Amino acid sequence: MKHVVLAAALALAAALPAIAQQATQKGPTADAVHEMERQRFGFGELVPGRDSDQKSPRAANFDEAKVGNLFPPPLFASAEDATKAGWEKRRQDLAGLVEDNWVGRIPETAKGLRIVWHKEPLPGRKGYDTEQWSGQVLSPDGRSGPVIDATITFPKRARHVPALIDYAYIWPPNFKLPGPPPPDTRAMVLKRGWAQVDYRPQLLQADTAAQMQQGVIGLVRWPRERHDWGALRAWGWGASRLREELAKDPRIDGSQVSLAGHSRFGKAVLVAAAFDHRFADALVSSSGAGGAKLMRRDFGEAWTNMAGSYAYHWYTPEVMEFAGHKTVADLPVDAHMLIALRAPAPLFVSSGSADKGDAWVDPKGMWVATSLAEPAWGKVYRLPVPPGGGMPEAMVGYRDYPLAFYQHDQGHVPWPSYESFMDHEAKFARR
Questions:
Q1: Which residues of 108-126 are buried (b: 16+ CB within 10 A; e: fewer)?
Q2: What pLDDT is attached to residue 25?
Q3: CA-CA distances (angstroms) from residue 74 to 305, 334, 427?
Q4: What pLDDT does residue 430 have?
Q5: Which residues, at least 6 apart from 391, have a Cβ–Cβ distance to it below 8 Å?
Q6: Which parts of the chain register pLDDT below 50?
């Protein structure tokens, strides 16, 4: 039980940036925007999300014997889909299903957006060059929107080095995570001779429905249409534009720009990597529901949590359809299909240990979805995949495959996976 409480505390810590964003802005609340879209599209009354408090009448399930037996939709609709020619069409179909029912479609008008970059040096780590990059987003009619914001640390005299774009949280002033300071993942990246990029996606699209209109989503089209994009897709759009700008810099090898994200940003990195194969590799850490977790497993956080006012802005409004009129059993896609959109490019799915505080994100559910996605790499592209069998042991995992799964022995934290992920990138990313 103490680890469930710890998971809830860490989840609250992750929510603080969004809470702070909403608290500093006047205007509609997240609940009001959520209710507006629910009524506009006629989704009906929604089932409330699960609660980590085991005394709650809506308590989440953490008993493996009670996860249910809902079967996910098949990755391949026919034998032809398991061929390269067939997979090309199947992947297009799956991408459309994932967009329409999960992450949303980027409106065509987004193609007309322009970005004006401003770059300036900053004081930073000794022995490195640090710069602040800010890309002002402008609409076709000249309206000024939000910014793509990043702090980049380059090795001295860098020339065509790999880069890691870390989705970075914006914490409230004077905020400290509980416990001792964690290992420095930035130092891990720099020690490898890479450039390290702190990308702050919340400045492009706020992490709350209350400010959805003020971000790039609202700049492109407001109010949203039923299958329009949410924050995960908007953050990914910004990451792709940042990747493109990095590739123009002679200090960066544009073919070796990778992504890393944890928790909600793990969800975001999975979505970005699935739809943009030009990212060399991606670390998807503890992404859970709405990310790499098989949604049909009743364990920890549920789809109904994703459809509530706290989280639904990450997705298309259509997520509410499967928490009201329909259920997750009616969802035409599941996480293995989202993961498979990444094939044949490398991907590293990671989690902490359930008994150390990561139960809420359902580590086993992420393993199940990853294993169900393997045929996209193995059957279609004849790439090596792990041997059949159960979930690998923590600290062992299946790291030596293009589609990797690794469970570390800590809780809801990303740092224990970084070294293994960078080894994975060195082995499988394009060179």
A1: eebeebebeeeeeeeeeee
A2: 56
A3: 24, 9, 30
A4: 75
A5: 363, 364, 367, 368, 407
A6: 1-9
Whether the pTM exceeds 0.90: the reply is yes
Q: Give the DSSP per-residue string, 300-318.
A: SS-HHHHTSTTTGGGS-GG
* Interatomic CA distance for residues 165 and 133, integer angstroms: 13
Q: Which of 350, 198, 337, 362 is nearest to 283 (CA)?
A: 350
Residue 172: per-residue pLDDT? 87
Q: What is the 3-state secondary structure (H, E, C) of 175-232?
A: CCCCCCCCCCHHHHHHHCCCEEEEECHHHCCCCCHHHHHHCHHHHHCCCCCCCECCHH
Q: Which element (helix H / strand E) includes 134?
A: strand 128-138
3-state SS class at 124 = coil
Q: What is the set of domains in the chain, with CATH numbers?
A: 2-106+150-428 (3.40.50.1820)
398, amino acid identity: Y
Tokens of 313: 């802005």
Q: What is the pLDDT of residue 325?
A: 93
Radius of gyration over every alpha carbon of the chain, rounded to an integer in angstroms: 20
Omega before 107 within 30 of 0, i.e. cis: no
> Which DSSP symbol is given to 100?
I
Q: How far apart are CA 334 and CA 310, in angstroms?
A: 21
The pLDDT value given to residue 3: 45
pLDDT of residue 221: 97
